[in-house]
């Protein structure tokens, strides 16, 4: 059974993943590119397919890590927090440059 700290880390990781999905799709809609070839292919299939693949794979991996090596959950949360900050920066650039019609690249 998972302790409270582990459950909180899993929930935070899942929420960060959902933000990553939304931000990625938004940035792609504004002209960005997906640099992960697996996710780029999933996006080509469709945004709902991309979201489903990302949610399912991330959830399975996160739960497996929580059960087998919970100390790595902190690193997942830190990594996804940094990714979320990158997305926030890109979103800020989109908003500040939108009147000029310029775009930046996304992960």
Structural class: mainly alpha
User: What is the tally of beta strands?
Assistant: 0
Beta-strand level of the residues, as a percent range? under 5%
* Integer count of domains: 1
Give the topology string: H per helix, E per strand: HHHH
Please tally the helical runs, counting DSSP H or I stretches of 4 or more residues.
4
Sum up the overall morphology in one term. Answer: globular
Helix content: over 70%
- Give the C-alpha Rg: 15 Å
Q: Sheet bearing the most strands, described?
A: none
Q: For the terminal residues, how far apart are their CA atoms?
A: 35 Å
State mean pLDDT (0 to 100 scale).
Answer: 91
Q: List unreliable stretches of 5+ residues.
A: none
Question: SSE layout and pairings?
Answer:
Elements: H1 4-29, H2 37-45, H3 47-68, H4 73-97
Helix pairs in contact: 1-3, 1-4, 2-3
How does this structure look, described?
The N and C termini lie far apart (35 Å). The protein has 107 residues and is mainly α. The model has no long low-confidence stretch (mean pLDDT 91). Helix 1 (4-29) packs antiparallel against helix 3 and helix 1 (4-29) packs parallel to helix 4 (73-97). The longest helix is centred in the N-terminal third of the chain and has 26 residues, at 4-29. It has 4 helices and no strands. It has one domain (4-100). It has helices at 4-29, 37-45, 47-68, 73-97.
């Amino acid at each position: 059974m998972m302790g409270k700290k582990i459950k909180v880390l899993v929930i935070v990781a899942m929420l960060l993943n959902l933000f990553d999905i939304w931000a990625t799709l938004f940035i792609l809609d504004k002209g960005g590119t997906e640099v992960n070839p697996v996710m780029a292919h999933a996006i080509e299939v469709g945004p709902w397919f991309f979201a489903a693949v990302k949610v399912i794979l991330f959830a399975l991996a996160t739960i497996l890590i929580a059960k087998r090596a919970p100390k790595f959950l902190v690193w997942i949360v830190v990594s996804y927090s940094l990714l979320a900050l990158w997305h926030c920066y890109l979103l800020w650039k989109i908003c500040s440059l939108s009147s000029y019609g310029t775009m930046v690249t996304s992960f």
